[in-house]
Write a structure and sequence with these properties.
single chain; alpha/beta; Rossmann fold; DNA polymerase, domain 1; 2 domains; seven-stranded mixed sheet; 11% strand; globular; binds xylulose-1,5-bisphosphate; binds magnesium ion
Amino acid sequence: MPLEALLFDVDGTLADTERDGHRPAFNAAFREFGLDWDWDVPLYGKLLAITGGKERMKHYVDTFRPDFDKPSDFNDLVAELHKAKTRHYTAMLAEGNVPMRPGVKRLLKEARAAGIRLAVATTTTPENVTGLLEHSLGKGSTEWFEVIAAGDIVPAKKPAPDIYVWALEKMGLKPEQCLAFEDSENGIRASRGASLKTLITINDYTRDHDFSGAAVVLSDLGEPDAPATAISGTWEGLGYVTLESLKALHRS
Ligand code: XBP
Ligand code: MG
């Protein structure tokens, strides 16, 4: 079956959003609410095991803050905190300080020009996706993506395959017609769970993750003047990921 579509994770894959984006946005929300919660870089790495911001905050309280006296409306507090966090995060995006990872824009443009269909499958909140696309990829780039599957649209977040299954159904595609792009173990468990061939680009938080089942694990997508390196699997491309090299990976 020919390659018809590319499905992209967002956080860690399109852009390095977690350490200097989501993390400080959570901390700003905690301060706003007068909480003494503070997520430093190593702690946030541990918390990333739980996908979804609301789920992550609940996990933090249960695991790291047994001293916290949960109010009876704890779920509402978490929802309000998450709204504040999203406000802080999208304000950061609007400043345009969260760049796309190497090769992302180049590859998306190449795929688009060749009529390859594009989609997003992510755990993060929908407005975070559009904010990142519009401010970091370019105005109007949200329209490049036929489907943006995000956030609470499916109740079971990654590593459940549901978000990918939802996107495939919406596009009327079989997994064999697509490639997925991920950066994390929870991400590849979701994409492989939906039977998608998956290309991994690692980042500082995910380099030691278990990427069993990946078609290839790369440092990044690379650029002509800054080639990607293969972490595992063979990569016979030009040194950077092109549509032609993706088609070869898809056939293999
Ligand atoms: C991303 C997530 C999200 C973000 C924060 O995972 O797990 O929770 O960290 O965004 P993936 P929200 O890259 O696998 O999609 O606070 O909006 O959830
Ligand atoms: Mg990710």
